[in-house]
Design a protein that fits this description.
Chain lengths: ~300, ~525
């Protein structure tokens, strides 16, 4: 029996859907076919009439149509004043619709940081929140105790956008009943059990503390240019993007977009430093030890790195 | 006795929260209202942040136009800082934007527009079976090739900028990347592959052969010339669209606006269609006139938008946006403001670009048939043909000899704007900075132009106007309206506006409140 999927877009930019179209091996279409997934609705790709869509929503709500997987992209818009009227569907706050569907879904997947944690708009007047988290705090729209029909908490596939191979991998795991271990923010460890820093082509520059204060150079972006790679869990530099590269590889700092706190309030292109060392150190690192280590590492830096001879 | 009904049509293909209310009498649309149903408040999110943060925040306005938002944010910061990017930085910025357009035009054309040809409403159309075979969602024979080709070309954006969507590699003074000659070589190979696919599946001929199509008669001759032409996606669009009557719907107001895009560096061998110095020239076409564009003539109205009223229109440097959600009472019905150019509702997008550039085929088609759904969609599907040659030249010309990034002083105070053509039309950002922080940010998106509500004088927006007169066979499955709306490639999520600090809770709001 086909696995049924409904894709809901809320307070977001559609970027997760657009990124998903770039999924590789298999292509999205082949993946859905291979897993026997019946996409009941995707706002970008389905061609059913408005009436057909309305009938579908009624059938899911009544239980007549089984819903195995609900994917939600975009935040839950609660503003103004909790009414949700900044984001409506057919005159009704969209959050009501999302709530109804979530009660019927076998599994609920938050695709992207907005759906996972609120993301863009959590501090804005749209009063955005995530499905089961508000930033790093459990709860969110559905509440900490929410469990899907299959007994699962919301699976958070963070990222702005979420890497398409993560979405495909999580769907495959759900369909094939491969267990997914989750971290404390309900992100699968398979993809969020590593730092963005791992696999960065600038790693050697980081190691010896060859740091840049201006863009367009080869050194490390962590110390002055705001890079969050060592603090952020995600697979960007393992999976790469669009088969080719990553932001840090081309000289753009990691903005920490898989983090519950994204977007952070302080400037993206600057590291907040104390005594020339970032205030926010790599996850789990002791400051005193780090200072000693980085001082020694800088002293040990080979000339090929000091002179930026190593290509990236 | 005339039968009069009003239907609500949520049309949210692509990212979008656009709901159309159409009034139908005797099977014909007599009036229409386009309502943006989502508000995201981006400009407020930007206020108080560092100017460079606009490069990270604004691409997230739209996952489809991410590169275009980045490009105009960078242009606005260039203007503020007085930085002049080196010629290779301009080439790299252009290349990423053009790859995004290619991706958009074929994805929209074949995955999002053409899927409506496989709607059961066309069961009696002579080409229905073929339409289902080609475009059935997730299954059509054109779908897999389109998906693959559209993601391949985005690899160019990733090689230059790290990822698509949502990178931030365009920065004031140029770009953060330093592509190696071998990176550019790889980009050329990817481009060549994209061109071969586009020629064989979409055009059915070479780009050069297509570019000789310079009139309505030449288009008919091209279609009849070979089965490869007739059976290509382009040939199928023309054959299906003509039989479905798409040349007779979707006229719109007949005003066409293009902000201009893709500046040609002084040292480049690329030649634009005019002497403007842009591959996509700026301008405003209405009737037989093709006038220069001046951003000072852009204003936004809020008389029919859920914001507190002000008189007439305001330029985005002076724009104000205070919520005034009155539900269906009164005249307001959309979260989108109503942008106007010289007081006129104006259509924007690939057709506007073609008319401003005076491409003979489109000038002739519009002269003979008037603007319409099919010609608008045709302009989008063939736009990549105007980009591929320049992309290849720019990749060849990029050497990095003058660097990719000019030195830039920190931005403390001032104002600036950036304008370009996103995939779906004119896009502008207007920014003011005080004491090193953003104090004012206004965004006007292409969909705000196209899906605008009525203005202070009660004049309909382009899409609303284009819907009037459309014949609808089945109000429960109004596929005809879908074609008209989608020919504008709307992306309503882009219609984002600030609200002031004195916002008050909304009551129950019914979208599409017709007067």
């Amino acid at each position: 029996m086909a696995v049924t999927l409904y894709w809901m877009q809320g307070g977001g930019c559609g970027g997760d859907s657009m990124a998903l179209l770039n999924a590789e091996t298999p292509d999205l279409i082949e993946l859905l076919r291979g897993l026997d997934v019946d996409v009941l609705w995707h706002p970008s790709l389905s061609n059913g009439s408005p009436k057909k869509h309305a009938d579908l929503l009624r059938a899911i709500a009544s239980g007549e149509q089984r819903l195995d997987v609900l994917c939600v992209e975009g935040s839950i818009v609660r503003g103004p004043g909790g009414t949700g009227m900044y984001d409506t569907h057919a005159g009704e706050p969209r959050k009501h619709l999302t709530h109804r569907l979530a009660q019927k879904a076998g599994a609920v997947v938050a695709v992207g940081t907005c759906a996972s944690f609120g993301g863009i708009g959590t501090d804005g007047e749209i009063e955005a929140t995530g499905l089961q988290f508000h930033k790093g705090r459990q709860g969110g729209f559905l509440g900490a105790g929410f469990r899907s029909v299959a007994g699962l908490p919301v699976i958070n596939l963070a990222g702005c956008p979420c890497h398409p191979d993560v979405v495909c991998g999580a769907l495959t795991a759900l369909v094939q009943r491969v267990p997914l271990d989750l971290d404390e923010y309900q992100r699968p460890l398979a993809w969020y059990g590593m730092q963005v820093h791992q696999g960065c082509v600038r790693n050697e520059y980081h190691e010896y503390r060859i740091e840049e204060s201006a863009l367009g150079k080869r050194g490390c972006l962590f110390f002055h240019l705001g890079c969050q790679g060592p603090l952020t869990r995600g697979p960007c530099n393992k999976l790469r993007w669009n088969r080719r590269s990553s932001k840090t590889a081309v000289g753009v700092p990691c903005f920490g977009c898989t983090s519950p706190s994204f977007p952070r309030p302080n400037p993206f292109f600057e590291s907040r430093c104390i005594a020339d060392v970032p205030l926010d150190l790599p996850e789990g690192v002791d400051r005193a030890h780090y200072l000693a280590y980085k001082g020694m590492a800088a002293a040990a830096a080979p000339d090929r790195l000091r002179q930026r001879k190593n290509r990236i | 006795m005339a039968t009069s009904i009003t239907i609500d049509v949520p049309l949210n293909r692509v990212e979008g929260d656009l709901e159309i209310r159409a009034q139908i009498e005797d099977g014909v649309v007599t009036d229409a209202w386009a309502a943006g149903t989502m508000f995201r408040g981006f400009e407020t999110i930007l206020r108080g942040r560092a100017p460079m943060d606009a490069l990270v925040i604004t691409p997230r306005i739209c996952g489809l136009c991410s590169t275009a938002h980045l490009a105009v944010a960078a242009l606005a910061l260039d203007a503020l800082s007085g930085a002049v990017p080196p010629p290779d930085a301009t080439r790299v910025r252009n290349l990423a934007l053009m790859a995004e357009h290619f991706q958009n035009d074929v994805r929209h054309g074949l995955l999002m527009f053409a899927v409506d040809f496989a709607n059961p409403a066309y069961a009696k159309h002579s080409l229905y079976r073929e339409a289902v075979e080609r475009y059935q969602p997730f299954a059509g024979s054109s779908a897999l090739g389109t998906l693959r080709a559209s993601k391949r070309i985005l690899e160019i954006v990733a090689i230059l900028g790290g990822q698509w969507p949502h990178s931030a590699y365009m920065v004031p003074g140029g770009v953060a990347c330093v592509p190696a000659p071998t990176d550019l070589m790889l980009c050329r190979q990817i481009l060549q592959q994209a061109r071969l696919w586009y020629e064989s599946q979409v055009l059915g001929c070479t780009v050069e052969r297509w570019q000789r199509v310079d009139s309505a008669a030449a288009l008919d001759a091209w279609l009849a010339e070979s089965p490869a032409h007739a059976n290509s996606d382009l040939g199928f669009l023309l054959r299906f669209g003509r039989e479905a009557g798409l040349e007779r719907t979707g006229a719109g107001p007949g005003n066409f606006l293009c902000f201009g895009a893709l500046p040609i560096p002084a040292d480049s061998a690329v030649r634009g269609p005019t002497s403007s110095g842009f591959l996509v020239p700026a301008g405003f076409v209405h009737g037989a006139l093709n006038e220069p564009f001046d951003q000072a003539e852009v204003v936004e109205h809020v008389s029919h938008s859920w914001y507190e009223d002000y008189r007439g229109g305001k330029h985005p440097f002076h724009g104000e946006t205070k919520p005034n959600a009155t539900g269906r009472d009164g005249t307001k019905y959309s979260w989108a403001k109503a942008p106007r150019y010289r007081r006129k509702p104006s259509e924007t997008g690939p057709l506007a670009e073609a008319l401003v550039a005076a491409f003979p085929l489109f000038v002739d088609l519009v002269a003979k048939l008037g603007p319409n759904t099919l010609t608008r969609q045709l302009a989008r599907l063939v736009r990549p043909a105007t980009l591929l040659g320049a992309m290849d030249t720019w990749l060849t010309e990029t050497t990095g000899e003058e660097g990719f990034l000019a030195a830039v002083e920190p931005i403390e105070d001032g104002e600036g704007f950036g304008t370009t053509q996103a995939s779906r039309g004119a896009l502008g950002h207007w920014i003011k900075v005080e004491g090193g922080q953003i104090s004012h940010y206004q965004v006007i998106t292409p969909t705000a132009w196209n899906a605008s509500p009525r203005d202070s004088e009660g004049v309909r927006g382009p899409l609303e106007e284009a819907l009037v007169g459309t014949r609808v066979a089945d109000p429960e499955n109004p596929v005809e309206l879908g074609h008209v709306v989608r020919s504008f490639d709307p992306c309503l999520v882009c219609s984002v506006h600030t609200i002031g600090p004195d916002d008050r809770p909304l009551g129950r709001v019914v979208v599409g409140g017709s007067p």
